[in-house]
Amino acid sequence: MLTPFHLAVQVRDLAEARAFYGELLGCTEGRSSDTWVDFNLYGHQFVVHLNPALGEGGVASHHNPVDGHGVPVPHFGVVLEMADWERLVDRLNAAGVSFDIEPHVRFQGEPGEQATMFFRDPSGNAIEFKAFRDIQGQLFAT
């Protein structure tokens, strides 16, 4: 069994983050204060910390080439079971989320073949959700 990770990122507005992570992604909320909120991100402790200085521009990132796409760096996310990934794709599409990299399968026919998608939260944090048909056999395949 994997142990949960803890990740904290900065956001420009807590209400906006609650709507995105809580309502859209379905993360339950844990502890909070007037400057941060804990979320349960698929069993992991994910915390958003208020940084009003971010403003409209949000978090800066650059892109590195991976399998013909410009992957935003930095990014974070969760590896899901394929059925959970597909349900999330449907939820994001229904909500009109704009993708940096549309949901697709990369490394087709190669070790590590995976379904992946990239999008951003309202503060500009890049998020990747991916899935494998066989997580244990494919996650670290070379």
TrEMBL record:
Swiss-Prot/TrEMBL keywords: Dioxygenase, Oxidoreductase
Pfam families documented for this protein: Glyoxalase
Domain VOC positions: 3-132
Statement: the UniProt record of this protein carries the keyword Oxidoreductase: yes
Domain of life per record: Bacteria
Protein name as annotated: Glyoxalase/bleomycin resistance protein/dioxygenase superfamily protein
Signal peptide extent: none
InterPro entries on file: Glyas_Bleomycin-R_OHBP_Dase, Glyas_Fos-R_dOase_dom, VOC_core
GO terms, molecular function: dioxygenase activity
Upper classification of the organism: Bacteria, Pseudomonadati, Pseudomonadota, Gammaproteobacteria, Oceanospirillales
